[in-house]
Amino acid sequence: MAQTFGDFVALLEGEGEYLKIGFHPTSIPLQQRWRNNGLSADFLADYLSTFFPGEDVATSERQSQIKGAVGYIANELLENCMKYSHASKQHLVSIEMFLEPDAITLYTTNGIEPVRIEPFQAFIQRLLTEDVGAMYIEQLESNADNDDGGASGMGFLTMLNDYGVKIAWNFSIPARAGDEVAVTTMVRMSL
Amino acid sequence: MDITREDYQVQYDEAAATVRCSGSFRLHGDEYKPMLDLLGHAADTKSAMLTLDVRELQFLNSSGINTLSKFVLQVRKHGVSQLVVQGSTRYPWQEKSLKNLQRLLPALRLDIV
Predict the structure, then answer these.
(1) What pLDDT is stored for residue A148 in this prediction?
(2) pLDDT above 70 covers what percent of chain A?
């Protein structure tokens, strides 16, 4: 059983080019793991560059745009996973990237704490139905009054507002009571 | 007051009223506090002209966008400095994301070359 939000496209391993990286969320402390977000995101972006060779000014520009977008989005998705994944043994954190002729799709999957599900789904509903540009500015204005450096929801808002991607979510509903819910976030970028 | 780390640097040049950022800002939460303090200090000097130079800033995560936005909002609150943000087309994120700072402070001058 699953509950989806937005236009969730499930791509299957074995269909076209893909790359998958998995982490165990509890193996090392957050502080140390944080560094891996950047390394993994840069790796995905660099890996992709091979498929978009920059042979002249126009293709170099395209390569740089795609590399920049994938590097940013993958990093934000991984930061979210590391910040919010429920420390349990049931779910690894994973990031997958699929390359199709007309799109690049990234997926991250992580376990989610039961208490976080409802507020997260309420935020998702806002992202899918409200004016993202207005939400973006509203969020920055309200963050200004908070002293912590956290930027709640800014990752998704920047992806939608600045990179024009499509985002969708899939929540797995466990068959057995007490099992953990896993959330898969999909970000699809048209080429 | 300058911040010098292996992967990023923030320098406040008081004489030129310029904050220069370089490297990659991939910090999380509280790690941005020293940078926020430095930017807040620069905004609080209330100089007539204030420049934020990010031409050498290769990468900025969303918490970093939040940090730069706080600086812009602080300048807006004081209402006395003309803020100039200098960016580069070399790093694609700058053309995509810096324009949002202008939405927070329409008088901000954005120079991306």
Answers:
(1) 53
(2) 92
- How many structural domains are present in chain B? 1
Whether residue A137 is contained in a domain is answered as no
Residues of B in contact with A150 (CB under 8 A): 29, 63, 66
Q: What is the CATH number of the domain that holds B40?
A: 3.30.750.24
Burial class (CB in 10 A: 0-12, 13-18, 19+), A31: exposed
Judge whether residue A83 has pLDDT over 60.
Answer: yes
CB contact at 8 A, B112 and B95 = yes
Residue B25: pLDDT above 90?
A: yes
Average confidence score pLDDT of chain A: 88
Q: Please tell me which of the candidates B29, B103, B104 has its beta carbon nearest to residue A149.
A: B29
Q: What is the ipTM of this complex?
A: 0.94
> For residue A156, is it within any domain?
no
Q: Does A52 touch chain B (CB under 8 A)?
A: no
Q: Mark A102-130 as b/e (b = at least 16 C-beta within 10 Å).
A: eebbbbbbbbbeeeeeeebeeebeebeee
Mean pLDDT of A38-44: 93
Can you tell me whether residue B105 is helix, strand or coil? coil
Residue B6 contacts A, CB cutoff 8 Å: no
Contacts with B36 from chain A: Cβ below 8 Å: 149
Residue of A140, A145, A165 to mutate when probing chain B, most B C-beta within 10 A:
A140
The answer to whether the CB atoms of A143 and B100 lie below 8 A apart is no
The answer to whether the CB of B62 falls within 8 A of the CB of B48 is no
CATH of the domain at A10: 3.30.565
Give the pair of three-digit tokens for residue B69: 């936005």
Report the predicted TM-score, pTM, of the whole model to 2 decimal places: 0.94
Residue B90 above 90 pLDDT? yes
Is residue A100 over pLDDT 70? yes
Residue A184 lies in a domain: yes
With CB atoms and an 8 Å threshold, state whether A149 touches B73: no
